[in-house]
Structure formats: structure tokens, C-alpha cells
Amino acid sequence: xxxxxxxxxxxxxxxxxxxxxxxxxxxxxxxxxxxxxxxxxxxxxxxxxxxxxxxxxxxxxxxxxxxxxxxxxxxxxxxxxxxxxxxxxxxxxxxxxxxxxxxxxxxxxxxxxxxxxxxxxxxxxxxxxxxxxxxxxxxxxxxxxxxxxxxxxxxxxxxxxxxxxxxxxxxxxxxxxxxxxxxxxxxxxxxxxxxxxxxxxxxxxxxxxxxxxxxxxxxxxxxxxxxxxxxxxxxxxxxxxxxxxxxxxxxxxxxxxxxxxxxxxxxxxxxxxxxxxxxxxxxxxxxxxxxxxxxxxxxxxxxxxxxxxxxxxxxxxxxxxxxxxxxxxxxxxxxxxxxxxxxxxxxxxxxxxxxxxxxxxxxxxxxxxxxxxxxxxxxxxxxxxxxxxxxxxxxxxxxxxxxxxxxxxxxxxxxxxxxxxxxxxxxxxxxxxxxxxxxxxxxxxxxxxxxxxxxxxxxxxxxxxxxxxxxxxxxxxxxxxxxxxxxxxxxxxxxxxxxxxxxxxxxxxxxxxxxxxxxxxxxxxxx
Length: 527
Known about the structure:
Elements: E1 32-36, E2 42-43, E3 46-47, E4 53-55, H1 58-65, E5 84-89, E6 98-101, E7 104-110, H2 118-127, E8 133-137, H3 162-170, E9 180-182, H4 191-208, E10 212-215, H5 228-238, E11 247-251, E12 254-256, H6 274-281, H7 289-299, H8 307-317, H9 319-332, E13 334-335, H10 338-351, E14 361-362, E15 366-367, H11 376-383, E16 393-398, E17 402-406, H12 421-438, H13 448-467, H14 476-479, E18 480-483, H15 492-496, E19 503-506
Parallel strand pairs: 1-8, 1-9, 9-10, 10-11, 11-16
Antiparallel strand pairs: 2-3, 4-8, 5-7, 6-7, 12-13, 12-15, 14-17, 16-17, 18-19
Helix pairs in contact: 2-10, 3-4, 4-5, 7-8, 8-9, 12-13
């Protein structure tokens, strides 16, 4: 603006006026924050433990959190190397994975100290359309115990600590970008600690108002066909009652194809003790010369073969060993679904918007069968609970359709306002976008001109959302209203205290969760 009072020299002057008012810039809606353990956490000599790091690709994740690969021809470094044991049983095991070899039953059991989920959860996130994300590494992998877990026990990793995960969660208090909190390794805690962590996540989500928490359920990796209901009851009893509309849970775990045969070998069996493996795949009572030679070469390498090459030779020469590796891979590839859910949500938000329910969508990388495939009647008890109201979204496999997310509810399933995840996430999107835009008017005169400008700015933004299908209503007036002014949203006391109150009402789209088709026979009529 040119001040005419300062013009003293004859000439031509240009006065530029703003042609466009301030506008609302839509905030990102799908930025998950993964909290958990990583192979390492450093970049260019600087530690990034308990430091939120924003990444935009899996390559970025590798740069900060993965171990470097050695020079060829050595095999690439294993970023995740769980250990498994074959434990002989007197009778056929009634629970868990097992294998029958040489007339004996063997349970396939992990060293629980070596089981972690974050690395593969991030991979699953990017397989399903993930983009920008935050990673909070709370530490590196802990030491193995050197023994298998007991058959039938819940999978608990003593190296995964509640304090580590909650401290990682608290580092996000200063980050406004994340819109989803995910702790893939939370189910490796005991039930009480898992419940405490979930309560903390829901509390932080509701207090900040910028994110939702996505939960997995303990024992979703190996549910009992009948007693799985106990796991659901325990989950509902331990996740608390605060901020339920800011949380969503998914069940069961997924079978995936993330880990391949090259990722699991004899070093992952029996803690690397080749003698224990040899006693099963090449018993002294009936040794195989080819297998004997391969095992001898592994113990005393002389040919310069890599671990991968030796493993491939052993797979080809010994069918029992190949079967063992296949079973171990199946166990390793059972993953909590939260990482995949975050990827699906990101993909839907980028193509449509947060108002589209993240359901009836297939999961890339998921394989059938699931650890448990629930029926309609079984899902009904998870989808709606009249007592706690805590809805759980089920993942199911349908013939010809694949593995689908078959639920779109928050944990606040009895609420008419907040039962749907898409409604909660749409409101977060609208609230945060308008809040950020309103910062431009802080310290502006609290007058009619400012009120009109704010109303026009927010109305224009909501009109765009409505035209994209994010709000319901035949006309903009049916979809939203924005009010700001003396006598409507403010009184004289508000003006004296410096308050400018804006009231925004929106009609958010709800998913068509139940579609009812009515069939009726029609009486035949004459031609």
C-alpha cells in the first residue's frame, strides 16, 4: 500500500492490492508414527535413538535404521534375524505350528527374545501405498535367550519394555505432523503393560487432537479357534475408557510374504547350533552323504561359499530341511496388521480423502489363510459390544476377493457421533486445517471485517471438501455452516477479553456399513 502522505516527487506510482483473501490449506491426513525397535539408529555418526525422524521412503528408513551391507560377494546383512527351535513332543501338539519328521512330532517355537515387528511393519506400510512417516527408534534389538519359549505360552519378548515405548511415544508430543500412532511391538508386552501403553496412546491422541492410535491385539498371531474370545475380552478390559474415539483395533494378525527363503537359514535355527539341526535332518542312524558333506563344509568352510549358497545347497539336498525352513518362514511372516492398515489409509487418503472408510480394501502382501478366519456371526460380537462398546475391526478372507479389511469403526462403537474411524479422521482433518489457517488472523482487529474474512475463508474450504464428497448434503447450506460475529458467537465480554469465537457445523459422510436388500415376489401379469 502506497502512503499518499509520503509522495513528494512527481511521477507514476504502482499500488499493489491483494486480489485473493487468505485460504485454508488442507493439512496432511496420513502420516503414521512408528514407535519400536530397529537394527540400529544412527546417521552420519549421529545417534537417532528416541528422536522422531521423518522419512518418505523405505530407502530413507534403511539409511537411518538399518545395518550396512558388507562388500560383495558376502551375503547382505540380515536386518531382522529371529531364532527358532524344533522341540520334540511326545504326542501331536494341540496348539501352535508343528512338523512331523522321522516319526516324531516337533513344535516350532521361537526364542521370544528375538521376535520384533517394526522393521517388517514399515515394509508392509510401503507395500500398501505408504508415503511420509515418522520413525521413533527406542533402541536396538536385545540379546537372545538361547532357548525356545514354552509351548502354549503367550509370545512375550522381555527385551521389549513398556518404558521404552512410552518414552518413544512422548517424543511425539512436540510433533504436529503425525496423524497415526503405531507400536507394532506392543503385543510383545505382557497384557498389563500392553494395556498401560494403549491408555497412554489414547490419552495423547485425544489431548493433542491430531492423531488416532491403531492397535493390534495380543495372541492375534496364534488364536485358539474357540478361546480366542478371551483375547478380545482381555483387550477390551485393558485398553481403558479415555479417548476411545481416537483409537481403532484390528484382528487377527496377517500372513504375509515379507520374508523370503533367502532371509531364513540354518543360522536362525537352534541359536546357530548346527549339531542340534544335524541330529534332526541327518540322523546318525541313516545319514545322507550329500547332507553330511554340506554340513561339514558349513562347519569348516574351505570352498568360499556364502551362507546363502550353503543354505540353498542344503535346501536342495534335504527335503526335511526344506520343510523346516518353509514352516519357520510361515511363522516369521505372521505380522500384526497395523503397518498394513496405515498403508491402506494413506493410499485411500491420497486418492480420495479421509472421509472414505478404510474398509472393503484388500491388503497387499497378505496371504491366505489368516491365523483365524471369522464368520459373520463371530465378527458380529467383535464389531458391536453392548457392554463396553469397544468395536474391533476384523480382517477376513473372502473367496475370489482375497484378504479384506472388513470393519471401519473406532473403539467408541456405541457413540452415534464417533463410532466410525472415517468420521473421527475427517473431523481431525477439518479442525486442524481451519485451526492452522486461523493463525493468520491472530492479533487482527476483532471487528466485522475480520469476522467476515474468517467466515469466507473457512466456507470456501468446506465448499471444496463438500464438492469432493467429504460432506453430505444436496447443497452447501445442507453440508456446513460457519458463523462468527457479535451477537451470534460472541458477546461484549468476549471482545473485551480478546476472544474471537467461530462456530463451524459440518455434516460428515458416514459409511454405508449395513446394506439391506429387500426382495419380494411379484405376481405374474398377463402379456
